[in-house]
Structures are given as structure tokens and as C-alpha cells.
Design a protein that fits this description.
Low-confidence stretches: none
Distance between the termini: 21 Å
Oligomer: single chain
Order of helices and strands: EEEHHEHEHEEHHHHHEHEHEHH
Structural class: alpha/beta
Number of helices: 13
Shape: globular
Radius of gyration: 16 Å
Mean pLDDT: 98
Strand content: 15-25%
Largest sheet: 8 strands, mixed
């Protein structure tokens, strides 16, 4: 496993984590709000075994990436970040990536599709994700998550970071993994979450225009978005499929690891 840096939109430096053989099928992971590349650790850990080239990164404002002020409301910047990571990972028309998008990452990858199209993207796998923000996503937000809005945009004590983390998993996380996730989550300042939450986005059009495979996965115990959101993503895509995992929370890779990896392998391999 290696770390490197790439320059994203408006000169923002992004921290990138890579694992697996250089000639393996390319998988790029985009995490959710307030988290980091560490969220994809269960995938990074099996990259060599599976023969997959796994690349993930700390989004702007998160982890070890730059945290500029007033740099989170423009879809162009998010699209530029994804483009920079894909290109650095070696994505091309001949080596297209399977992109995993967790939670807010769904808005980010569809921002990319809206701006740059799908030449570098072979398939998209979403995990409890949204392609909408602000008013358009309102009907799919759980009451528990909706009630946290103000605290998410203002709290820098670490309390919200811990609450959000605990809402993501339906099953107990390994203590060491949970500690690492929480430490990384606390690196995301409230002003970043504020800027991200204030966006209004509806990327249905970009999703509907995408011709690749879309697998929309969701946990039946997701405390942030209702499964109807992933069903909507699958229905909107031209080649979409919806999969729901039982006894699973907001992050299928954590709660339904073996099932999720098996479904991912059907697309990647």
C-alpha cells in the first residue's frame, strides 16, 4: 500500500492511497462526507489477493488532503478532483475504472459525469449513495440524519464525527479500525461539512445519460438514506441494478463485506 499526492481542482492537493498490482483491473473509491480513504480499508486489504488495482483518496477538506475555505459548493471543483485522481491512477479509454461511490461520493461521481462524461469510467457501484443534495434529496433522508443537519455544519468538538461514524455501521466495528476511522473523521472541519451540506444538486440527467453498468447497493438498516434512494439511482441509470443487504447499515463494505466483494467481483472481473 502506498500514498501519493495529486493536484485537483483549483490547485487543491489530494491525498491518494493505492494498493494492488499495477496491471490489475482499476477500482477507484470515493468516500462519504466527514470520512476519508480509510473507509475503503477492507477493499485495500484484499487488493493484492484479488489482483485488483485499488485507488482511493481523501476528498478535499478531508483526511490529509488540503482544506481550503469556500471551496465546496462548485460541482466543477469536485469533477476536477475526480478527473485528477482517475488520470493519476492510469485510467484511459483502454483502461477504464470501476468507481465506487459511498454516500456523498455519489454526488461527486455524478458531478464528474455531468462535466466530463464517462470515457474513463467502466462501471459505477454505489454504497448507500446519493446523486442529489439539498432539497432534491429531502424525501430520501431519514429523520435521524435530518435532525443532525445543524450540528453537522457547526460542530468541531468531534462529537458529531463520532455520532456519524456510529450511524454508518449496523454491526460493531473492529476497535482498531473504528479508532482509525474516527481519528481521520475528526480531521474534517465543520466549515467543510457546512460548505458541502449547503449544495443543491440533482444529477439525475447525468446519471441517466451514463451507458455503463450501475450497481446501487444499500443496507436495510441504513440510518441516513432510505433504500428508495438507491432504487431511484438504479431505476434512473440505463443499466442499473439495485441490491439490498440484510443486517447492514450505511456502509455495505463494512457490514456485508463478503457479499459486497462478491458482487463487486462480478463487475470488475
Amino acid at each position: 500500500m502506498t500514498t501519493s499526492q495529486v493536484t485537483g481542482g483549483d490547485g487543491c492537493t489530494l491525498n491518494v492511497v493505492t494498493a494492488g498490482p499495477e496491471d490489475g483491473p482499476l477500482i477507484v473509491g470515493i468516500h462519504g462526507i466527514g470520512q476519508s480513504a480509510t473507509a475503503y480499508a477492507p477493499l485495500l486489504d484484499v487488493a493484492d489477493e484479488r489482483g485488483w488495482r485499488v485507488v482511493t483518496f481523501d476528498m478535499r477538506g478531508h483526511g490529509d488532503s488540503d482544506k481550503p475555505h469556500d471551496a465546496y459548493g462548485d460541482s466543477q471543483l469536485w469533477a476536477d478532483d475526480v478527473k485528477a485522481v482517475l488520470q493519476a491512477a492510469g485510467a484511459s479509454a483502454q483502461n477504464r475504472a470501476t468507481v465506487l461511490a459511498w454516500s456523498y461520493g455519489g454526488a461527486v461521481i455524478t458531478d464528474y459525469l455531468a462535466v466530463y462524461g464517462a470515457q474513463l469510467v467502466k462501471a459505477i457501484v454505489t454504497l448507500g449513495a446519493t446523486n442529489k443534495l439539498g432539497g432534491p434529496v429531502g424525501e430520501f433522508v431519514t429523520k435521524e440524519f435530518g435532525a443532525m443537519g445543524k450540528a453537522i455544519m457547526t460542530d468541531d468538538t468531534g462529537a458529531v464525527a463520532e455520532q456519524l461514524l456510529d450511524m454508518c455501521a449496523a454491526k460493531p466495528l473492529d476497535a482498531g479500525f473504528r479508532k482509525e476511522l474516527l481519528e481521520r473523521a475528526k480531521a474534517c472541519p465543520a466549515y467543510v461539512r457546512n460548505g458541502m451540506f449547503r449544495r443543491t444538486v440533482d444529477n439525475d440527467e447525468a446519471l441517466a445519460a451514463y451507458e455503463g453498468v450501475v450497481l446501487a447497493t444499500h443496507g436495510d438498516q441504513d440510518q441516513m438514506f432510505t433504500p428508495a434512494l438507491s432504487r431511484h439511482i438504479a431505476d434512473t441509470a440505463k443499466n442499473g441494478t439495485f441490491t439490498q443487504y440484510s443486517e447492514c447499515g450505511h456502509m455495505p463494505l463494512w457490514d456485508a463485506t463478503d457479499e459486497f466483494l462478491a458482487d463487486l467481483a462480478k463487475i470488475v472481473d
